[in-house]
Amino acid sequence: MNTNRIFAMPFASVYPMYIAKAEKKGRTKEEVDRVIFWLTGYDAVSLKHQLDRSVGLADFFAEAPRMTPDAVRITGVICGYRMEDIEDPTMQKIRWLDKLVAELSKGRPLEKILRK
Asked: Residue 116: inside a domain, yes or no?
């Protein structure tokens, strides 16, 4: 897997895909944002700032205000990779967000997605 290419991919190009995936299954942009806020510590203003700057995925996660300590509770398989076995910390953060959006799209209750 070419991680350099993934890390450089602008978050602003991935974000609309997350929203489209969720909306296709009856979820909302606000729910996607809430998942992102919970995972990364961004708020609406700082997320918009990151989108406007078109930062890459690696920088998006490196600049996150506060990754939730509960992220280690995100387990399972996404894109063929077991969450617990991903060694690269940045790739693991990217896959955590992928997993959360996938759970949202599958209709899982937000409280469970946010590991409450």
From this structure: no
